[in-house]
Every structure is written in C-alpha cells, then in structure tokens.
C-alpha cells in the first residue's frame, strides 16, 4: 500500500555552487569565459606586472620627499651615494617648489587671491549644477553661464580693458548681425513676429553695451596682462571657454546643416568642412599671427583672446558633426508628432528633438570635451604657457637640475590631466545611466 508524504517545513536553502557566485564565479564569468578571454586575462596581468610596480616604486617607494634643491634628487638617497646621472625616484620637492608657478604661471604674487576667488566661485557654482537632486538649476545656470564669465574676466584682468579698443565694437556688430540672421530664419518658419525680433536685437545690444561698460569701468584693481598668465590657469581658461562656447555654436551649425534654407545649409557646410580640414596647430598660428593682418586698423585682439576664438571655432566644427549624428538618429515620427501638435521649429527642436539627440551622443560630446582639454597644450607654440608649458619651462632651472626632474614634471602634469579627463568621463557615464529610459538596468 502506497504511503503519502506531506512536507510541513520548507527545506533549508542550499548555497549556490562555487563556480556561480563569489570571486570564483565572477572570474569564470568575466575573465575565463572562453580560452581566448583566458589568454587575454593572463596577458593583461603580465602587462600590469610590468608597469604598475615600477610606477609605484618611482612615485612613492623610491621617491625623494624633502630637499632644498636638485642635489637631494641627484646624489643622496637612503644614506647612500648614487652616481651622477643615475635615475632614482621622483623628485617631489621640485614639484613643491614650483607648484605655485604650475598653477598661476607668472601671475603677480600679491594678486593671486583673484585667481583663487575665481576658481572657488566656479567650483561652488558648478557642483550644484552637476548634481541632479539639487534645486534652482535655472538660476544656477544663468549665473554660471551669464554672470560668472564677466566676473572672472574682471577679476583676472583687473577691469578697465574696454576703453579705446575697437574689438568690442566689432563684437557688438557681429552679435547683432547674428541675432538678425536668427530672427530672419525664425520669421521664415513663422515662429516669431518682427516686433519680438526687434526686442531680441535690442536685448542683445543692451547686454553687449552693459558688458562693455563693466569691462571698461575702473574697479580699483591693478591690471594683469595675459602674457603673465600661465600654468593651470591658462589650461582651464582655454578649455572651459572652448567647451562652453563651442557647444551652442556646434548645435546651431548642426541645425543649419540639416536646414532646408540653402544659405544656412551652405554656410554651415563650408564652415564645418573648412575647420575640420585644418589642423589645430595651423588654427593657432593663424589666430596668433595672421588674424591681426585681416582686422581693421585700430582693432586689436589680445593673444589669449585670439587663441580662445580659434579653439572655439575649431571645436565647434567637430561638435556640430557629433550633434548632427544625434539628430539623424531621431526617427521621422518625432518630427511629425511635434508638427502635429502645432509646435514651431524652435519649440520642436528645444522640447522634442534636441533633448533626445543630445542624450544619444553624450559619449561623443564628452569625448570632444576631453580631446579639447588635452589639446590646450598646443597653445605653447604661440607663446602661451599652459600647465605643460610651465612644467617644461621649469626644466631650465639649474637649481633643480637632476636626472629625474623632467620625469617628475611630466608625471605631475599627466596626473593633473588624468584627474580632469577621468572626472569628465565618469560623470558622462553617470548622466547616461541617469537619463536612460529603456529596459536596460
């Protein structure tokens, strides 16, 4: 006779197999999932073995941490005598002695508090803007993009720089002409009326006039010419200005290249293909040497300002192609749906198309930003000493001459660039995950 069995208690959970969990399971899944992955894993471990231990030996374990001159990094280490010319560890006293020059360049010592304030205000304004959970994003962006650049210009230069210069008059004319072109295109798409367009022109003219007056006013601070700027200060000024200014210009050029207006499309295509076909070194030479020859008499641009304009236009061309790739990835249905709702061209782009397009090309945009940040080292060829240029200039000091001075200087510059570029890369990954709306988790 068959007997029934009814379980009254749940059986205890069994531990997962060792090959499916823990470190071993992760390694089998990610490092040794196939014979090819296994070979690549061992090859990667071998490369790490060849590079990482010597790196830490040079930077930490065998490094020199105290000293008054290059002799500390040249002859004496751990109580023994090292022959002249034989390399030892990194010479960190050299970095400590030149640290202020690496940050400020030849900026006057008694005026460096202005640079500190500019950097501090920029950081405390940028951090809340990058954190999605904090409020007042619009107000913070208006301050950071609208007020902060002029505040920094006045702080770093000392103000009183607009009097007698025709550059601001030329800038005013260019901005008004640019606004007129925007209004003309908008009117052709029936997005705004002539009256509101004139208000836009008047507003832009008033803003430029206020900027001119603010920069021309004597704020009681001594002027610091841009040839005295250097180090990380120049690197950040060139990189941040190029990144912030090239982004909107690139968007406008991408829209112009896809526009149905022949004039706007032709201008955008010529601009993009010209700047993408010229090396950045040539652009810097042209902006520094050739540009003044084409300007009207009496119009003078500072060398740093010419470099900023050249870098911005060069980066804008590449940014335009990146944004255009995102625009082409948007399906036709998105455009048709926006037009069915009665949205104008700029409403359709600002509310429907561009947010989706920019989200798709976040990696490309950040890659362009990182490339631009590293390309700032090329300004040395036109006589501007950025961080890398300031490091190279310090090698000529006989006081800190040693076999490892150049190695240490390049290592310090590389670490600084890596921190900024790695930070931008990780933040882009964070924004990709935050804005992802698909099924992927």
Briefly, what is this?
It contains 16 helices and two strands. The protein is mainly α and 441 residues long.
Write the layout of secondary structure elements.
Elements: H1 22-30, H2 35-61, E1 76-77, E2 80-81, H3 92-104, H4 112-130, H5 137-157, H6 167-188, H7 194-216, H8 232-257, H9 262-276, H10 280-294, H11 303-328, H12 332-340, H13 345-360, H14 362-375, H15 387-394, H16 405-435
Antiparallel strand pairs: 1-2
Helix pairs in contact: 3-15, 4-5, 6-7, 8-9, 8-11, 8-14, 9-11, 10-11, 11-13, 11-14, 12-13, 14-16, 15-16
Walkthrough of the structure:
It is globular, with a radius of gyration of 28 Å. Helix 15 packs antiparallel against helix 16. Strands 1-2 form a two-stranded antiparallel sheet. About 6% of the residues have low confidence. Strand 1 and strand 2 form a beta hairpin. By secondary structure, the protein is an all-alpha fold. The chain contains 16 helices and 2 strands. It has a single domain, classed as MetI-like fold, CATH 1.10.3720.10.
Distance between the termini: 54 Å
Percentage of helical residues? 55-70%
Question: Any idea what the CATH superfamily is called?
Answer: MetI-like
Instruction: Tell me, rounded to a whole number, the average pLDDT.
Output: 82
Spatial order of the strands forming the largest sheet:
1-2
Class derived from helix and strand content: mainly alpha
* CATH architect. name: Orthogonal Bundle
The name CATH uses for the topology is MetI-like fold
Total E-strand runs:
2
Biggest β-sheet: count, sense, barrel? 2 strands, antiparallel
Gyration radius (Cα, Å) is 28 Å
Beta content comes to under 5%
Instruction: Indicate the low-confidence ranges by residue numbers.
Output: 77-81, 163-170, 181-195
**Total individual domains:** 1
Secondary-structure element order, as H and E?
A: HHEEHHHHHHHHHHHHHH
- Form type: globular
CATH hierarchy, class: Mainly Alpha
Query: How many H/I helices?
Result: 16
